[in-house]
Amino acid sequence: MNTDTSIYQDTILDHYRNPRNSKSVPALKNRIRIINPLCGDVIEMGMRIHAGTIVDIGYTSVGCAISIASASILTTYAKGKKVSSLKKMQPSTMMKLLGIPLSPSRIKCGLIAFEAFQKLLILTDTSHGSETKKSIPAVRTSHGAKL
Amino acid sequence: MRISKSDFPIFSNQPHLVYLDTGATSLKPAIVIAKEREYYEEYSANVFRGIYKLSERATEEYERVRSIVADFINANSSTEIVFTRNTTESLNLIAYSYLLPRLKQGDEVVTTVMEHHSNFVPFQRAAQERQAVFKVIPITQDGTLNLSKLDSFITPKTKLVSLVHVSNVLGTVNPVDEITARIKKINPHTVVVVDAAQSAAHIPIDVEKMGCDFLAFSSHKMYGPTGAGVLWGKSEHLEKMEPFMTGGEVVSEVTNTKTTYKPPPHRFEAGTPHIAGVIGVGAAVDYINTIGFKNIIAHESFLTMYAYSALKKAFGSRIRIFGPSAKKRAGIIAFSFPPYHPHDIASILDQEEEICIRAGHHCAMPLHNHLGVPSTARVSFGLYSTKADIERLIKGLRKVDNILGGNQ
Q1: Potential cystine with B326: which of B75, B104, B308, B311 (Cβ 3.0-4.6 Å)?
Q2: ipTM for the whole predicted complex goes beyond 0.95
Q3: Which residue of A has its CA nearest to B343?
């Protein structure tokens, strides 16, 4: 039963069962891998940038429904947008995109994809407006992202 | 006295609550809450130093609990009972005050892979500080200790072995009497520590029969208040140990140049203790004794067998239960229900059925690494747990299957 207080809203369940942009990442030139050792959520995210725009983005993810859904929702949002505008994105925007009342213990589930995305943006060099091949070994996330 | 949910006032405030997380903390019976409240409302004075009736009553009640706890675990004397904040502090006290001063480079410290971090990290740390060897006894397929390896783990250099009585994940009940005897046979000087956090409320403890040197448990896991714990240690050890924390209460005499310390147990109780909490512990022990372990064991083993078979009946091989068979385990069942993540299972159970379970690594990361899963879901039983709770659990898990998996 989906009530307004449930975090398992229809959108979330849809993105969990049919995650968008879920695909093999090695094909994408820029990528990062994040592990949350506290619960075992793992996300590997990659993207291709052309002329300062994210033309392709994908991930493979093992984790809870919230973390998988948030990766799907985030990558759908980011695709086709300019890197320069996405660099300014805040965790609160990610929470708005999810649109569910996450309790403190589940917030990190909702933000792990965002954390991977932020790190990926930092590591991507777009100063010449062209793709730069970068591949980063697995990074352990901190206990919880700050809002 | 019959076991009854109505002993626990929380159910009047939360009538639909299904609390299956006693392993994390137990709910409190009215008589424990009342006993703590009585201290605050009737004789809320500090212990030991007051020369007025209120303080004398507080001291008397506090020390009376020391004797109650000594009897509860069949200790030789109440001077062997030290009150701490919790099991974690008790185990740290052993690591700092007993082990560290005696540990040398090349000595050996042993624990097991099924330990809670509180019975793993303090000893690992002490071993690293002294460049001692830190050994971890493995488990078998069914989650019991691999005791065939015990002989090779214990050597003339083994200073200390610490092991858990009941695993907070696997529900394994370790035969600590037998293990301690075997250890002492190989090396009579090895000190054995038992973590009784998950057993104190569920299995009768007899430290004399166990033959161990130290034992630790928490009040809040045995229907007592939070913030109070017990360290039991043999007098012969406690008498030779330096204090853990120093300051008020632990001292005999303090001068500008020198301080001398009281004998145990007060040597290890620095500062004002959680007086109300300790007084509540007395009431908790009385409550457990009134029900009796025979009834407690009958109640919990019924629930464990029922839950184990209900899970298997409802979900078959889709549910993986970690640890020994139902008959051989305490009332703790950690499981995985792929493809569902334990966090989702716990959230949906809470959201749909007001069921409280625990999800994560349960402060047992080495164990989860060994099991090959990053996290598990866990249910654990207490005196207030019922067959109906388990039926609600099954219903809730079916909802998980439906909401996340689209299965009816």
Answers
A1: B308
A2: no
A3: A64
